[in-house]
Amino acid sequence: xxxxxxxxxxxxxxxxxxxxxxxxxxxxxxxxxxxxxxxxxxxxxxxxxxxxxxxxxxxxxxxxxxxxxxxxxxxxxxxxxxxxxxxxxxxxxxxxxxxxxxxxxxxxxxxxxxxxxxxxxxxxxxxxxxxxxxxxxxxxxxxxxxxxxxxxxxxxxxxxxxxxxxxxxxxxxxxxxxxxxxxxxxxxxxxxxxxxxxxxxxxxxxxxxxxxxxxxxxxxxxxxxxxxxxxxxxxxxxxxxxxxxxxxx
Length: 249
Ligand SMILES: NC(=O)c1ccc[n+]([C@@H]2O[C@H](COP(=O)([O-])OP(=O)(O)OC[C@H]3O[C@@H](n4cnc5c(N)ncnc54)[C@H](OP(=O)(O)O)[C@@H]3O)[C@@H](O)[C@H]2O)c1
Known about the structure:
Blueprint: E1 7-11, H1 17-29, E2 33-39, H2 42-53, E3 63-68, H3 74-83, E4 89-92, H4 106-136, E5 145-149, H5 156-159, H6 173-191, E6 196-200, H7 218-230, E7 239-240
Parallel strand pairs: 1-2, 1-4, 2-3, 4-5, 5-6, 6-7
The structure holds NADP nicotinamide-adenine-dinucleotide phosphate (NAP).
Protein backbone atom coordinates (compact mmCIF):
# COMPACT_ATOMS: atom_id res chain seq x y z
CA UNK A 1 0.00 0.00 0.00
CA UNK A 2 1.21 3.52 -0.74
CA UNK A 3 -0.32 6.35 1.26
CA UNK A 4 0.96 9.00 -1.17
CA UNK A 5 -1.14 7.79 -4.13
CA UNK A 6 -4.67 9.00 -4.67
CA UNK A 7 -7.51 6.55 -4.06
CA UNK A 8 -8.97 5.78 -7.51
CA UNK A 9 -12.70 4.98 -7.41
CA UNK A 10 -14.91 4.05 -10.39
CA UNK A 11 -18.69 4.32 -9.98
CA UNK A 12 -20.80 2.83 -12.78
CA UNK A 13 -24.04 4.63 -13.71
CA UNK A 14 -22.94 7.77 -11.87
CA UNK A 15 -24.59 10.42 -14.04
CA UNK A 16 -27.76 10.42 -11.92
CA UNK A 17 -29.39 8.95 -8.85
CA UNK A 18 -27.49 7.32 -6.01
CA UNK A 19 -24.19 6.94 -7.88
CA UNK A 20 -24.13 10.65 -8.67
CA UNK A 21 -25.08 11.71 -5.12
CA UNK A 22 -22.44 9.41 -3.67
CA UNK A 23 -19.84 11.07 -5.94
CA UNK A 24 -20.98 14.45 -4.54
CA UNK A 25 -20.62 13.15 -0.98
CA UNK A 26 -17.19 11.62 -1.67
CA UNK A 27 -15.88 14.90 -3.11
CA UNK A 28 -17.10 16.65 0.05
CA UNK A 29 -16.12 14.06 2.69
CA UNK A 30 -13.10 12.21 1.32
CA UNK A 31 -9.50 13.28 0.85
CA UNK A 32 -7.12 12.56 -1.98
CA UNK A 33 -9.73 10.77 -4.10
CA UNK A 34 -9.87 10.48 -7.89
CA UNK A 35 -13.40 9.53 -8.90
CA UNK A 36 -14.22 8.14 -12.32
CA UNK A 37 -17.90 8.74 -12.93
CA UNK A 38 -19.09 6.31 -15.59
CA UNK A 39 -22.06 7.15 -17.80
CA UNK A 40 -23.46 5.33 -20.82
CA UNK A 41 -24.76 8.58 -22.33
CA UNK A 42 -21.86 11.03 -22.88
CA UNK A 43 -24.17 14.08 -22.80
CA UNK A 44 -25.67 13.12 -19.45
CA UNK A 45 -22.16 12.28 -18.27
CA UNK A 46 -20.83 15.74 -19.25
CA UNK A 47 -23.69 17.44 -17.41
CA UNK A 48 -22.97 15.39 -14.28
CA UNK A 49 -19.22 16.08 -14.55
CA UNK A 50 -19.85 19.82 -14.81
CA UNK A 51 -22.07 19.80 -11.71
CA UNK A 52 -19.46 17.86 -9.73
CA UNK A 53 -16.63 20.14 -10.82
CA UNK A 54 -18.69 23.19 -9.87
CA UNK A 55 -19.64 21.77 -6.46
CA UNK A 56 -18.73 24.51 -3.99
CA UNK A 57 -17.74 22.17 -1.12
CA UNK A 58 -15.57 19.85 -3.24
CA UNK A 59 -12.22 19.45 -1.49
CA UNK A 60 -9.18 20.59 -3.48
CA UNK A 61 -7.39 17.27 -2.97
CA UNK A 62 -10.20 15.43 -4.80
CA UNK A 63 -10.70 15.13 -8.56
CA UNK A 64 -13.32 13.73 -10.89
CA UNK A 65 -13.14 12.35 -14.42
CA UNK A 66 -15.83 11.15 -16.83
CA UNK A 67 -15.62 7.77 -18.56
CA UNK A 68 -18.17 6.40 -21.02
CA UNK A 69 -19.44 2.93 -20.14
CA UNK A 70 -22.41 0.80 -21.04
CA UNK A 71 -22.07 -2.39 -19.02
CA UNK A 72 -24.25 -4.33 -21.49
CA UNK A 73 -21.78 -3.63 -24.30
CA UNK A 74 -18.58 -5.70 -24.43
CA UNK A 75 -16.76 -3.17 -26.65
CA UNK A 76 -17.54 -0.48 -24.10
CA UNK A 77 -16.18 -2.70 -21.30
CA UNK A 78 -13.07 -3.38 -23.38
CA UNK A 79 -12.62 0.35 -23.96
CA UNK A 80 -12.77 1.13 -20.23
CA UNK A 81 -9.91 -1.27 -19.52
CA UNK A 82 -7.76 0.80 -21.91
CA UNK A 83 -8.85 4.13 -20.45
CA UNK A 84 -8.62 3.44 -16.71
CA UNK A 85 -5.00 2.84 -15.73
CA UNK A 86 -5.34 2.75 -11.97
CA UNK A 87 -8.17 1.51 -9.79
CA UNK A 88 -8.56 0.89 -6.07
CA UNK A 89 -12.33 0.71 -5.64
CA UNK A 90 -14.94 -0.46 -8.14
CA UNK A 91 -18.52 0.50 -7.28
CA UNK A 92 -20.95 -1.64 -9.29
CA UNK A 93 -23.93 0.70 -9.13
CA UNK A 94 -25.46 0.67 -12.65
CA UNK A 95 -28.67 -1.34 -12.73
CA UNK A 96 -32.23 -1.30 -14.01
CA UNK A 97 -35.46 -2.40 -12.37
CA UNK A 98 -36.64 -4.05 -15.59
CA UNK A 99 -40.21 -3.19 -14.57
CA UNK A 100 -41.94 -4.36 -11.40
CA UNK A 101 -44.93 -5.59 -13.45
CA UNK A 102 -43.84 -9.07 -14.39
CA UNK A 103 -44.58 -10.42 -17.86
CA UNK A 104 -46.80 -13.41 -18.53
CA UNK A 105 -46.13 -16.08 -21.16
CA UNK A 106 -42.91 -17.90 -21.94
CA UNK A 107 -41.35 -15.57 -24.49
CA UNK A 108 -42.34 -12.38 -22.66
CA UNK A 109 -40.98 -13.74 -19.37
CA UNK A 110 -37.75 -14.79 -21.08
CA UNK A 111 -37.38 -11.35 -22.68
CA UNK A 112 -37.99 -9.43 -19.45
CA UNK A 113 -35.68 -11.64 -17.36
CA UNK A 114 -32.92 -11.54 -19.97
CA UNK A 115 -33.15 -7.75 -20.05
CA UNK A 116 -32.85 -7.21 -16.29
CA UNK A 117 -30.19 -9.92 -15.84
CA UNK A 118 -28.22 -8.59 -18.82
CA UNK A 119 -27.58 -5.33 -16.99
CA UNK A 120 -27.68 -6.23 -13.30
CA UNK A 121 -25.74 -9.49 -13.46
CA UNK A 122 -24.17 -10.23 -16.86
CA UNK A 123 -22.91 -6.65 -17.31
CA UNK A 124 -21.79 -6.26 -13.70
CA UNK A 125 -19.91 -9.55 -13.63
CA UNK A 126 -18.32 -8.98 -17.06
CA UNK A 127 -17.13 -5.51 -16.05
CA UNK A 128 -15.80 -6.78 -12.71
CA UNK A 129 -13.86 -9.52 -14.48
CA UNK A 130 -12.40 -7.02 -16.96
CA UNK A 131 -11.24 -4.67 -14.19
CA UNK A 132 -9.97 -7.36 -11.78
CA UNK A 133 -6.36 -7.19 -13.03
CA UNK A 134 -6.25 -3.52 -12.01
CA UNK A 135 -7.48 -4.44 -8.53
CA UNK A 136 -5.35 -7.52 -7.95
CA UNK A 137 -1.98 -6.24 -9.23
CA UNK A 138 0.18 -3.15 -8.77
CA UNK A 139 0.38 -0.90 -5.73
CA UNK A 140 -2.69 0.51 -4.08
CA UNK A 141 -3.28 3.43 -1.74
CA UNK A 142 -5.90 1.40 0.18
CA UNK A 143 -6.98 -2.24 0.22
CA UNK A 144 -8.62 -2.74 -3.20
CA UNK A 145 -12.37 -3.15 -3.00
CA UNK A 146 -15.44 -4.12 -4.99
CA UNK A 147 -18.63 -2.53 -3.70
CA UNK A 148 -21.67 -4.23 -5.21
CA UNK A 149 -24.79 -2.11 -4.93
CA UNK A 150 -27.45 -4.59 -3.99
CA UNK A 151 -30.87 -4.22 -2.40
CA UNK A 152 -32.63 -5.43 0.72
CA UNK A 153 -35.17 -6.85 -1.75
CA UNK A 154 -32.50 -9.43 -2.63
CA UNK A 155 -32.04 -10.54 0.98
CA UNK A 156 -33.38 -14.04 1.74
CA UNK A 157 -33.29 -13.13 5.43
CA UNK A 158 -35.59 -10.15 4.87
CA UNK A 159 -37.85 -11.93 2.40
CA UNK A 160 -38.49 -14.58 5.07
CA UNK A 161 -39.03 -12.14 7.93
CA UNK A 162 -42.76 -11.35 8.44
CA UNK A 163 -41.80 -8.13 10.30
CA UNK A 164 -39.83 -6.71 7.35
CA UNK A 165 -41.62 -3.76 5.69
CA UNK A 166 -41.57 -5.28 2.18
CA UNK A 167 -42.54 -8.82 3.25
CA UNK A 168 -44.62 -10.54 0.55
CA UNK A 169 -43.74 -8.09 -2.25
CA UNK A 170 -45.51 -9.41 -5.35
CA UNK A 171 -42.52 -9.39 -7.75
CA UNK A 172 -39.33 -11.43 -7.97
CA UNK A 173 -37.45 -10.62 -11.20
CA UNK A 174 -35.49 -7.57 -9.99
CA UNK A 175 -35.00 -8.86 -6.39
CA UNK A 176 -33.58 -12.13 -7.73
CA UNK A 177 -30.87 -10.21 -9.63
CA UNK A 178 -29.74 -8.70 -6.32
CA UNK A 179 -29.76 -12.12 -4.60
CA UNK A 180 -27.55 -13.34 -7.46
CA UNK A 181 -25.30 -10.30 -7.02
CA UNK A 182 -24.98 -11.10 -3.31
CA UNK A 183 -23.85 -14.61 -4.20
CA UNK A 184 -21.10 -13.11 -6.39
CA UNK A 185 -20.09 -10.90 -3.47
CA UNK A 186 -19.74 -13.73 -1.00
CA UNK A 187 -18.08 -16.25 -3.35
CA UNK A 188 -15.63 -13.67 -4.79
CA UNK A 189 -14.81 -12.44 -1.28
CA UNK A 190 -13.61 -15.93 -0.40
CA UNK A 191 -11.85 -16.41 -3.74
CA UNK A 192 -10.06 -13.06 -3.52
CA UNK A 193 -9.08 -12.62 0.15
CA UNK A 194 -6.73 -9.71 -0.61
CA UNK A 195 -9.71 -7.63 -1.71
CA UNK A 196 -12.57 -6.13 0.30
CA UNK A 197 -15.73 -7.30 -1.47
CA UNK A 198 -19.10 -6.29 -0.04
CA UNK A 199 -22.75 -5.72 -0.92
CA UNK A 200 -24.47 -2.47 0.00
CA UNK A 201 -28.18 -1.75 0.37
CA UNK A 202 -29.12 1.93 -0.10
CA UNK A 203 -32.73 1.27 0.95
CA UNK A 204 -35.85 2.40 -0.87
CA UNK A 205 -34.78 5.83 -2.14
CA UNK A 206 -36.55 8.47 -4.21
CA UNK A 207 -34.79 8.36 -7.60
CA UNK A 208 -35.83 7.92 -11.24
CA UNK A 209 -35.39 4.18 -10.63
CA UNK A 210 -38.79 4.06 -8.92
CA UNK A 211 -40.44 7.27 -10.18
CA UNK A 212 -39.19 9.02 -7.03
CA UNK A 213 -41.47 7.00 -4.76
CA UNK A 214 -38.79 5.86 -2.29
CA UNK A 215 -39.06 6.99 1.34
CA UNK A 216 -35.36 7.87 1.68
CA UNK A 217 -33.80 10.99 0.20
CA UNK A 218 -30.95 10.44 -2.30
CA UNK A 219 -28.58 11.92 0.35
CA UNK A 220 -29.68 9.26 2.86
CA UNK A 221 -29.58 6.37 0.38
CA UNK A 222 -26.18 7.39 -1.03
CA UNK A 223 -24.72 7.74 2.47
CA UNK A 224 -24.73 3.92 2.65
CA UNK A 225 -22.40 3.88 -0.39
CA UNK A 226 -20.19 6.69 0.83
CA UNK A 227 -19.73 5.10 4.25
CA UNK A 228 -18.91 1.73 2.67
CA UNK A 229 -16.50 3.22 0.10
CA UNK A 230 -14.58 5.27 2.69
CA UNK A 231 -14.47 2.42 5.22
CA UNK A 232 -11.12 1.40 3.73
CA UNK A 233 -10.22 -1.03 6.53
CA UNK A 234 -13.70 -2.50 6.90
CA UNK A 235 -14.51 -6.21 6.63
CA UNK A 236 -15.00 -8.17 3.40
CA UNK A 237 -17.86 -10.59 2.67
CA UNK A 238 -20.59 -8.57 4.33
CA UNK A 239 -23.90 -6.92 3.39
CA UNK A 240 -24.31 -3.43 4.85
CA UNK A 241 -26.67 -0.48 4.72
CA UNK A 242 -26.87 3.12 6.00
CA UNK A 243 -24.61 3.71 9.00
CA UNK A 244 -22.59 0.56 8.20
CA UNK A 245 -25.25 -1.67 9.80
CA UNK A 246 -25.15 -5.27 8.54
CA UNK A 247 -28.27 -6.84 7.06
CA UNK A 248 -28.99 -10.54 6.46
CA UNK A 249 -27.90 -12.12 3.18
N1 LIG B 1 -33.55 3.69 -5.66
C1 LIG B 1 -33.82 2.67 -4.84
O1 LIG B 1 -34.85 2.65 -4.12
C2 LIG B 1 -32.88 1.52 -4.73
C3 LIG B 1 -33.06 0.61 -3.68
C4 LIG B 1 -32.20 -0.47 -3.56
C5 LIG B 1 -31.16 -0.61 -4.46
N2 LIG B 1 -31.01 0.28 -5.48
C6 LIG B 1 -29.87 0.10 -6.39
O2 LIG B 1 -29.11 1.28 -6.40
C7 LIG B 1 -28.45 1.44 -7.66
C8 LIG B 1 -28.68 2.82 -8.22
O3 LIG B 1 -30.07 3.03 -8.35
P1 LIG B 1 -30.68 4.48 -8.55
O4 LIG B 1 -31.89 4.53 -7.72
O5 LIG B 1 -29.64 5.52 -8.43
O6 LIG B 1 -31.14 4.35 -10.07
P2 LIG B 1 -31.15 5.42 -11.27
O7 LIG B 1 -31.38 6.78 -10.75
O8 LIG B 1 -32.08 4.84 -12.29
O9 LIG B 1 -29.65 5.35 -11.82
C9 LIG B 1 -29.18 4.19 -12.43
C10 LIG B 1 -27.91 4.51 -13.18
O10 LIG B 1 -27.47 3.31 -13.84
C11 LIG B 1 -27.23 3.64 -15.20
N3 LIG B 1 -27.35 2.48 -16.06
C12 LIG B 1 -28.43 1.70 -16.30
N4 LIG B 1 -28.14 0.76 -17.19
C13 LIG B 1 -26.84 0.92 -17.52
C14 LIG B 1 -25.95 0.27 -18.39
N5 LIG B 1 -26.34 -0.75 -19.17
N6 LIG B 1 -24.67 0.69 -18.46
C15 LIG B 1 -24.26 1.71 -17.70
N7 LIG B 1 -25.05 2.41 -16.89
C16 LIG B 1 -26.33 2.01 -16.80
C17 LIG B 1 -28.24 4.72 -15.54
O11 LIG B 1 -27.87 5.41 -16.72
P3 LIG B 1 -28.93 6.36 -17.53
O12 LIG B 1 -29.00 7.65 -16.77
O13 LIG B 1 -28.31 6.50 -18.87
O14 LIG B 1 -30.25 5.62 -17.53
C18 LIG B 1 -28.12 5.56 -14.28
O15 LIG B 1 -26.98 6.37 -14.35
C19 LIG B 1 -28.96 0.30 -8.51
O16 LIG B 1 -28.05 -0.77 -8.46
C20 LIG B 1 -30.26 -0.12 -7.84
O17 LIG B 1 -30.59 -1.47 -8.09
C21 LIG B 1 -31.84 1.34 -5.63
